[in-house]
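README, section 4: Worked example with a bound small molecule

Sections 1 through 3 covered apo chains. Here we extend the same pipeline to holo records, where the ligand is supplied as SMILES alongside the sequence. The molecule in this example is pyridoxal-5'-phosphate. Nothing else about the input changes; the structure line simply encodes the ligand pose together with the chain.
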Amino acid sequence: MEYQNNIDFARAQDQADELGSFRDRFLFPKKADGSNKVYFTGNSLGLQPKGSLDSLKVELDDWAKYGVDGHFEARNPWFSYHERFREPLAKIVGAKPLEVAAMGSLTANLHFLMVSFFNPKGKKCKILCEAKAFPSDQYALETQLKHYGLDPKENLIEVAPREGEYHLREEDIMDQIKANKDELALIMIGGVNYYSGQLMPMEAIAKLAQELDITVGFDLAHAAGNVELKLHDWGVDFAAWCSYKYLNSGPGSVAGIFVHEKHSQNAELDRFAGWWGVPAEDRFMMQPGYKPAEGADAWQLSNAPVLAMAVHKLALDIHNEAGMDRLLKKQKQLWGYTTYVLEEIAKENSGVQFEVITPESHGAQISLLLHGEGKELFNRISEKGVVVDWREPNVIRLAPTPLYNSFEDVYEFGKLISESLSN
Ligand SMILES: Cc1ncc(COP(=O)(O)O)c(C=O)c1O
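The generated complex, written as structure tokens:
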């Protein structure tokens, strides 16, 4: 596509955008003049879907009306509330409904899954991850190792970008896995890197892991709802994600897990269990002795957080209505347009050096390394109503999100950057 950095071009793209109407289904933070801010932070916290209050009100009203009997008498009975998520989540992560569960929170879920899937034995006791993983993942991996008396310095293998580069090369990940194959008990990598926006070669990693008999799990915080996932077909052992980024379900909302079908009948797996993880018919029998439910449900510990889930369901339905294929097509166009606009600005302002450090393989996020003006530029565009985020030492992360961002947003973003530079 031939891009142009002008408002008419941007508006024409919006006119032709088959997902354009989805923008009206979200609530945008406003500038002082009442117009929408340029919200490019769906990689951090997705926007609130309109109708969230109504979805919440259904559950609040049923709670008021039925009290505890709402577990069975509510319009969406709370006893089986979690079952409503199997189909929509399965579509988003490329799984069978049996392989997913909406539950808990991301870091806690990663720990629970590692109880089952990180089993260090003898010299096969190491974990491989990406260097500079999101801190919560680093802490989770570090403390899992310590829990088994293993020194993270020796047992955590971090694959780093080469000198002067910002993202990982696929061959380097593969070489490290092969070089450590006899010692690796687990590969645990972020599907999309939170800092660079790099989409990791998950399929290739999972394939190699299976060939070498190494367990593989992914943190999909930045991947779920953002990139194509085929967790079942790829043979991934487990995965976990949050729902507040590209899944627009609200701050700290209920997260999700995937456990491959190949583990669904394995009652021998270690777990930290709770009463919601037993078969539905046994849940209120109050009998001793944990017996796992089939599939990912067995990892559930507690009864469903219905209020958080009310918004999650609405948000997933909107996402699925838009559909991953259409979202990916628009994501590509928005990405191309944004990087084009940035290049144009750099050309017009000699001395300004932006560098997109996100590689060709990516989701919605663009990580922009600022060589010249740094935090001051970020502060100036923030004051003008652009919502992006800053990561030390000098990176702006922005995510033109296909579900609700427009080409006009991108044009406006570029205009505000230009104005802020000339200040
Ligand atoms: C890649 C990644 N992992 C883990 C987390 C932590 O998530 P939570 O606080 O929901 O456990 C985040 C949060 O943004 C993240 O981006």
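What to look for in the output: The pocket of pyridoxal-5'-phosphate is lined by residues 105-107, 134, 136-137, 190, 194, 219, 221-222, 242 (CB under 6 Å). The longest strand covers residues 184-190.

Section 5 describes how to batch many such records.
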